[in-house]
Amino acid sequence: MRLTNDAHGRGRTALRRCVGAAVAGIMAAMMMTGPMASAQASPADAAPAGTVADAGGNKHFMVYYRAWRDVTMKGVNTSLPDDNWMSMYDIPYGIDVVNVFSYVPPGQEDLAQPFYDKLKAEYAPYLHSRGIRLVRGIGYDSVTNGFRRYVAERGGSVQDATDADYEAFADHLVATYMTEVGLDGLDIDMETYPSAADIAISDRVITALSTRIGPKSGDPEHTMLLYDTNGSEMGPFKDVADCFDYVAYQQYGSDSSRTADAAADYEQYIPSSRFVPGLAFPEEQDHNRWFDAAEPYESSNIHDVASYSFDHRLGGMFLYALDRDGRTYDQDDLNHIKPSNLLWTKTAIAQSSGVTLEQSKEAANHFLDRMERTKAVPGEVRQAVAAATNLYEANKAVLGKDWDQGYSNTYDPALELQLKGIDIAGLQSSIDRADALIADAHTPADARMILRMARDAAVAGLADRLYTEDQVAQWSDTLAKAIAVVPVDQPTPDPSDNPGAVDPAPTPDPKPEPKPEVKPEVKPETKPVPTGNSAASGLSDGSVSGTTVAANAGKVAARLSETGASIAAAAAACAVLLFAAIGVVALRRR
């Protein structure tokens, strides 16, 4: 059918508006990923608006994050030549407290500073957006002898110290160890047998700290004060027990019988819901032997203590040396830094919070379902999930025993359980319909291109690490508009009539690591931020120039105008579709 002059005019108007949208989208994409990105990226980029807040509940799960093994630390507190692999963006969901554990040898302060700069500017805001609190450990000696030095430097003595001196020292600790690096609390590490004089000092320092941070402060929801110990010495604890959020009990290399004994010791001062036992992974070049994470899983200390913590309603649990998850005391592991899929940590999070085997399998299958359009799921992976008899086996079916030994290195069961709450069935159905229309020879070329853009945007979004309800709604709406572009007189094909005819998005390289640090993609609440490297990155049929996209969008606008749609509606439809195309996210390597 020939268009009237009026229809041509309306089509040209819509086309100009679509071109404007394309240019704006391309500029946005360049700003996000091109040369300008490095000059204009801000710390806010590390705090995705669409980040899923960890559910957490009343259970704590804390990990010790060894700062000298962060990717920004190079040559600090190490003699190993291997590069660090981990960043704080890799911290799994289900964790609500991160203990920033750091030792910087004298003379290496400049090498360590980039980490602390990034911690305050980027890591902390990102983790805060997930509802995670960050604490920093200080030794008990830093409290007692630290106060002695503090008053001596000011010409005073402990004997003459006033409440004001203790208040000032508390301010000094908070400023030095917390606020200067953007943290939320302190963890007092007590692994000694203090004298009565030491206890007299620590009681007053802790009391002063408790008015600033922790459960007795003015901001108990966003600050923390922890008592961290490996024994049951009650002298330095009993008179200040109410100042602490919980006791983190180091029982490395021990099973739940030690947990039960220690919990009973502390129960005279705190409820069991404030007692949090902890285990450890093997540190590199360490002479200790903590066999907490050793197969078979159900005989391991991690399974035993995590189960005991949940069954006896303890406060949760913690793990030391997150980056060493999965390592052993074999010489190769002891003398090298290696990446980890964090299998044991992710399983302990689930075990200690009461996740059932059925829920674990549902999470695994949900992940595989949303990934399979971009990366084929081998039948043996599905079979391993189905055959799993415990949480570890269900997670291992997807992650593999170690890095690059499974379907995905980054599968996060706790996150997946939250994503299951977002209904994607309708969007999946629309993707199937779009696939059938794309495969149908009767679908006009311009409509097929628009369909593919919208379809690929939805598929890429679903295959990303996370997505929001608003994003799913937008992808569904965009795809519906794209489907509506197909002429109404064309019979709508049944996807089942075209088995094997799906035009999938490109399959990413499944083995991208050992990986550099990857900042989480910004995830807006209402629309995806363009992060592609071109106006059509991620399209199944290769790149399409902005001119081609705009020209074809103009044809679509003309067709919409011909059917009686308003100019604004036609332009808006094109703008939405073009933005979807430009905003296709490059699939993250799994």
Automatic annotation (TrEMBL):
Catalytic reactions on record: an N(4)-(oligosaccharide-(1->3)-[oligosaccharide-(1->6)]-beta-D-Man-(1->4)-beta-D-GlcNAc-(1->4)-alpha-D-GlcNAc)-L-asparaginyl-[protein] + H2O = an oligosaccharide-(1->3)-[oligosaccharide-(1->6)]-beta-D-Man-(1->4)-D-GlcNAc + N(4)-(N-acetyl-beta-D-glucosaminyl)-L-asparaginyl-[protein]
Principal EC category: hydrolase
Alphabetical list of Pfam families matching this protein: DUF7917, TIM-barrel_EndoS
Region (Disordered): 488-544
Keyword annotations of the record: Glycosidase, Hydrolase, Membrane, Signal, Transmembrane, Transmembrane helix
InterPro entries, sorted: EndoE-GH18L_3HB-2 (IPR057677), EndoS_F2-like_TIM-barrel (IPR057016), GH (IPR017853), Glyco_hydro18_cat (IPR001223)
Residue intervals passing through the bilayer: 567-587
GO biological process entries: carbohydrate metabolic process
UniProt xrefs under Gene3D superfamilies: Glycosidases
UniProt EC number: 3.2.1.96
Compositional bias per record (Basic and acidic residues), positions renumbered to this chain: 510-526
GH18 domain sequence ranges: 59-344
Biased composition (Polar residues): 531-544
Molecular-function GO terms, alphabetical: mannosyl-glycoprotein endo-beta-N-acetylglucosaminidase activity
Family: Belongs to the glycosyl hydrolase 18 family.
Name under which the protein is recorded: mannosyl-glycoprotein endo-beta-N-acetylglucosaminidase
